[in-house]
# Entry
Amino acid sequence: MIKTLASLAIVVPCYNEEEVINETVSRLKVLLAKLLSENKIAPKSRLYLVDDGSRDKTWELLHGFARTDPSIVAVKLSRNKGHQNALYAGLCLTEEDMVVSIDADLQDDPANIERMVDEYYLGNDVVYGVRSKRDSDTFFKRFTAEGYYHLMRAMGVDLVFNHADFRLMSRRALDAFKQYPEFNLFLRGIIREVGFPSSIVEYERHARFAGESKYPLAKMLSFAWEGITSFSIVPLRLITVLGFCTGLVSFVVLVWVLLVRVFTDSAIPGWASILIPLLFVGSVQLLCLGIIGEYLGKLYSETKRRPKYHLSDMVVMDKEPPSSME
Ligand code: UDP
Ligand code: MG
# Structure
């Protein structure tokens, strides 16, 4: 597929990043200039810096960059809304043909953006940055993160292994993504859902250039839980499975209790009449909860109002394809 020269937007969410943002912006500007000189991007390419309600000097710095450089757009959110929302805000502001999202801390080397752009020209709408090594992460972080991807897969959630939020999206993929009106954002899951031709770019993730992680353990856990509850109804379905299992066990115990009651005289009076209803009611309750869970699951997917499909291509002999396909 031959594409004309595409413009590039790079979106960077920043939360208390005063220690790194100078370096990040200068590296991204160098990269934009390089891509421009190599004729890989159109001149109207831009850098979008989103301040996620920082409490340090980040906004003053972003403001300064945007005032002196027309290729930089700086925006400030009304308060700290979290990484995913900050990124979403930035993505929605862009108008360029390709949009790359990257963290402010230089853990993901911006040089890889060039490889992503190359993949775009090969016809890919989404290019996922995938960490080939996690050497810079602690054992705990690596273990929990990789375990999480496996858990999500087991629950039927389609995620790209070891991919976070360093990725390129084409305009049509981004426009499709914007049709997902859900409030709880788990971008890496939604973008997988959107589809379109995609490829990956593997890279080594470095340590933070400066400053500390803005994702403490509590935030990380709540993000992980967000991912599960936004994409899977398996936890609800497990209640039904549990109800069946306890039902089965109680049936076996029930037979045993009856046998003991009828054929031996070692049963204490009242034992069978307490145990049988106890087991029965317990499993019936779990099963009923499971059924409610199933309906809740339906309600949950309905309330998301996710688009049912996106067209990726269309061939018509007697008329022009709709303009949104171009
Ligand atoms: N970030 C944000 N809002 C937040 C937390 C983080 O915009 O509430 C940004 C942060 O500035 C960085 C990116 O999200 O650009 C990823 O955060 P960080 O590097 O601290 O996370 P880690 O790599 O440690 O998981
Ligand atoms: Mg980081």
